[in-house]
Design a protein that fits this description.
Elements (H helix, E strand, L loop, with lengths): L11 E5 L4 H12 L3 E6 L4 H11 L4 E4 L5 H15 L4 E4 L14 H29 L2 E6 L12 H21 L4 E8 L5 H6 L3 H10 L12 H8 L10 E4 L8
Parallel strand pairs: 1-2, 1-4, 2-3, 4-5, 5-6, 6-7
The structure holds 1,4-dihydronicotinamide adenine dinucleotide and ligand LADIRMRS.
Family: Belongs to the short-chain dehydrogenases/reductases (SDR) family.
GO molecular function: 2-dehydro-3-deoxy-D-gluconate 5-dehydrogenase activity
Pfam family, one: adh_short_C2
C-alpha cells in the first residue's frame, strides 16, 4: 500500500543514481505518483527503463553520466529540464561507500570519493536553484547516512562526506528558504540493496546491526521511498534544513 502525494503528479524530478539500489526504488516511487523522472548513472539502465515503462506507461529519462564530471552532470540537469520542465524535485542519491583505511587514502582517492559523495551534491543543488526559483519553489533531498552518526570505521572519506552533506543541507536551506526552496537530508540505516548484500553484508555483521535497531527487520530500498516522497512533496512544506533518520531506530552510543 502506497501513499499518494497529488502535487508530485507531473512534477519534474531528477535523481542521481536512479537506476539501481535505493535510487531505482525512488524512480519507481516517483513514477507511481505520476511524476516525470530523469536520472543519471554510469552503467546502462535501458532494461530498467523498459520495465518501468511497461509497469507505469511512462518511461524515465535515463541520461548516462559520471557525476564526478561536473560539466556532464550540469548538462544532464539541463537536458532533464528541457525535456520535463524546470526541475522542482532534486534527489541527490548516488554515492559510493567503497571501503578504505585512513592510512591507504591518497589525494587521488580523496578527490574521487569527495567528488561523488559531496561535490556532485553541492553542484547539483547549485545548478537547479535558478529553475526552482523561476517555478516558485522546489524541494531538494540529499542522501546522507547514519554511518557517521554511528562513528563507523572502514570508510572515513565517505563518512566525512555524509557529515558534510548534513552541514551543507542546513546552510542551503537557510540560503534558499526565502525563495521557497526547501533542502532536507535523509539518513538511512543499513538498507539491504543487492550491492550491499554482494559486497558488505555478513551474517554476523547484519545480526549485530539489527541488534542495535529498535525494529528487528532488515531495511529494504522500498522503505526509503515514502520518506523521500514526503520530503519532496508539499506534505512537508514547513520542513527544511532537517536530516530525517530512517534506520529502524539504531541506538547510537558513544
Ligand atoms: N544501502 C545502504 O545501506 C545505505 C545507503 N545510503 C545512501 O543511500 C544512497 C543510495 O545508496 P545505495 O542505493 O545503497 O547505493 P548503490 O551503490 O546501490 O547505488 C548508487 C547509485 O549511484 C550510481 N553512481 C555511483 N557512482 C556514480 C558516478 N560516479 N556517476 C554516476 N552515477 C553513479 C550507481 O550507478 C547507482 O545507480 C547513497 O547516497 C548512500 O550513501 C546511506 C546509508 C545506508
Ligand atoms: O552508509 C552506509 O553504507 C551505511 O551506513 C551502511 C550501514 O549502516 C553499515 O555499514 C552498518 O554497519
Amino acid at each position: 500500500m502506497y501513499a499518494t502525494y497529488p502535487d508530485l503528479d507531473n512534477a519534474s524530478v531528477f535523481i542521481t543514481g536512479g537506476g539501481s539500489g535505493i535510487g531505482a526504488a525512488l524512480t519507481e516511487g516517483f513514477l507511481r505518483q505520476g511524476a516525470k523522472v530523469a536520472f543519471v548513472q554510469r552503467s546502462d539502465a535501458a532494461p530498467f527503463c523498459d520495465e518501468m515503462e511497461q509497469k507505469y506507461g511512462r518511461r524515465p529519462l535515463f541520461l548516462p553520466c559520471d557525476i564526478t564530471d561536473m560539466a556532464a552532470l550540469k548538462a544532464a540537469l539541463d537536458q532533464a529540464a528541457e525535456a520535463h520542465g524546470p526541475i522542482t524535485v532534486l534527489v541527490n542519491n548516488a554515492a559510493n561507500d567503497k571501503r578504505h583505511k585512513t592510512e591507504e587514502v591518497d589525494e587521488a582517492f580523496w578527490d574521487w570519493s569527495v567528488a561523488i559523495n559531496l561535490k556532485a551534491y553541492f553542484f547539483a543543488c547549485q545548478h537547479v536553484v535558478a529553475g526552482m526559483r523561476a517555478a516558485g519553489g522546489g524541494s531538494i533531498v540529499n542522501f546522507s547516512s547514519i554511518s557517521y552518526m554511528m562513528g563507523n570505521a572502514g570508510y572515513p572519506v565517505y563518512t566525512t562526506a555524509n557529515s558534510g552533506i548534513n552541514g551543507m543541507t542546513r546552510s542551503l536551506a537557510r540560503e534558499f528558504g526565502p525563495e521557497n526552496i526547501r533542502v532536507n537530508a535523509i539518513a538511512p540505516g543499513w538498507v539491504l540493496t543487492q550491492k550491499q548484500k554482494d559486497m558488505w553484508v555478513t551474517p554476523e555483521g547484519l545480526a549485530a546491526h539489527i541488534d542495535r535497531q529498535c525494529l528487528k527487520v532488515e531495511l529494504q530500498p522500498d522503505d526509503m521511498v515514502d520518506p523521500v516522497l514526503f520530503l519532496a512533496s508539499r506534505t512537508s512544506k514547513a520542513m527544511t534544513g532537517q536530516a530525517l533518520v530512517v534506520d529502524g531506530g539504531v541506538v547510537v552510543t558513544g
